[in-house]
Amino acid sequence: MQALRRIPLWLQIAVALVLGLCLGSISKTIGIEAKILGDAFIHMIKMTIVPLIFPLIILGIAQIKSTGSLGRLSLKAIIYFEIVTTLIIVMSLLLANIVNLGVGADLSGGNMKALEGLEANKIDFREFILHIIPSNIFVAFSEGNILAIVYFGVFFGLALRSLKGKAKPIEDVLDSLSKVMFKVLDYVIKFSPLGVFGSIAYSMATYGFEKLSTLIDLILVTYAGLAIVLLIIFPIIARIYRIRYWELINEIKDLLLIAFTTRSSESVFAPLTARLEGYGVKNSVVSFVLPLGYSFNLDGGMVYMAPAILFLANAYDIHLSVFDQVHIILLLILLTKGVASVPSGVIVVLTSVSVIIGLPMEGIALLMAVDFIMDMARTATNVVGNALATVVIAKSEGMFHKKEIIVAEQEKIKSS
């Protein structure tokens, strides 16, 4: 056990990934049963989200100097999300056009049963808005509705700040709760290799690579687009804001492995909050911007959706003019907002756009057979995008202080 503790967490996760792949390939029966390990880990992570995020939101809002600062923070975040996601959609669509993605592809064999039930998950903007405003905050807590918790937390934080010293006992309780939950989270993260092992074994045993050859072009274009985002677009953004991009990646590399293998960005939401604070982002920014990013800033998903639509259109010999493709870009910009709250959100968006432009549903059903391969990289890219967005907004607001500076200040205090 002592030797195991000395192995870095990211290396433990990488080994678990390889072992999971081996188990899923060797025995489908055992691989499918291993899913319980992945589900148990995700449940453990989810149990920490609400009791950690709720006090952090309140304390973060209470520390913001004015309501004007809060409004500016929100506006900056939303504008940033819109600009970056639109840029990514346009880039991925251009990439798909350059390689004539989908021309000559055989899309026979789509299983329509895979789409059953998705019609119930329609994107309803009226319901989405009302979903943000909780009619019962305890129901929002039980459902883990992050946006509703943020909404209530903003009002709670503003009320706490207006009372100043009169509500100090509540502030102390919330501060103590957040510290306890960070410790709980530290315990939970130690189980991540087991969760990764179970999730990847299940994915390999369930899906395999039977459909890989049919959709290899779409997979390659998606991964190429994700590589452009991670290696070119994000580093350029980081350079503009004087952020050490690779240092940030190194700070969260084990969380990226967890997100990649579990295909759940929620599985790293709480630990990502802790990492960004430790990296030097002020609590008031992390606790407000990160939840917004999780709902509005799906950078990885944006890379996939436009090429997938063009792939289906070309495979079915449906010509999409420049005007049609501009229409698709506008639809994706509109429909992907808040999609994180919709089960199977990416597929729901693809289905909605396909219906609007007249694409057969059989193609969507076939895409689902290999979606897990692309979903792993999409999820990890979403995590990087939201981490970078949080640091960008913090830098623009002067609420980012390098961890080295913080440590140096603490050492000074101790020595004095």
Question: In total, how many beta strands?
Answer: 0
Portion of residues in beta strands equals under 5%
Q: First CA to last CA: what distance?
A: 39 Å
CA-based shape: globular
Number of helical stretches of at least 4 residues? 21
- Mean pLDDT figure: 81
Helix content: over 70%
Major sheet: none
Tell me briefly what this model is.
With 416 residues, the chain is an all-alpha fold. It has 21 helices and no strands. The longest helix has 32 residues.
Question: What would the keywords be for this entry?
Answer:
416 residues; 21 helices; mainly alpha
Secondary structure blueprint with pairings:
Elements: H1 2-6, H2 9-26, H3 28-33, H4 35-63, H5 67-98, H6 125-132, H7 137-143, H8 146-163, H9 168-189, H10 192-207, H11 216-240, H12 245-251, H13 253-262, H14 269-279, H15 283-296, H16 299-315, H17 322-335, H18 345-357, H19 361-367, H20 371-396, H21 403-415
Helix pairs in contact: 2-10, 2-13, 4-8, 4-9, 4-10, 4-15, 5-11, 5-15, 5-16, 5-17, 10-13, 11-16, 11-20, 13-20, 14-15, 15-20, 16-18, 16-20, 17-18
Give your account of this protein's structure.
The protein is mainly alpha-helical and 416 residues long. Helices cover 76% and strands 0% of the residues. The protein has 21 helices and no strands. Helix 4 crosses helix 10, helix 4 crosses helix 15 and helix 5 packs parallel to helix 15. The two termini are 39 Å apart. The relative contact order is 0.18.
